Predict the structure.
Amino acid sequence: MPRAVVDMGKTDKFDLKSCPGGFVVLRRMSYGEKLQRQTMSTEASLRGEGRNQQMSLHMMNHRVTVFEFSHCIVEHNLEDENGQQLKFGDEQDVFRLDPRVGDEIAGHIDDMNNFEDTDEAKNSNSGSGLQ
């Protein structure tokens, strides 16, 4: 029978162009983790009005990013200015990243977890009316 669960031990290593010599090893999220991430990101739109809603949306984006970094990064060699390894479960360490480094890591996490963007998914949907 075909295996339908994510292999939590399967990882991919990415050398960072934005941080020469730096790397991250990432794992794919499980479907449950993707649902949890989606819930976190949509939760904010149900709360507040006007300015309060905007603030809530920004806070949720922060929570989602910390969630992704803490769940998907299984190994890295990135340090702070004192030579201490960054802890991506710690919101402060995530927010102290150089934006180019943070954006590059986030892009790799997105690429690993967006099945819809893969060639296989596009090919399997061709001719079916699904896009």
Remarks:
- The longest strand covers residues 11-15.
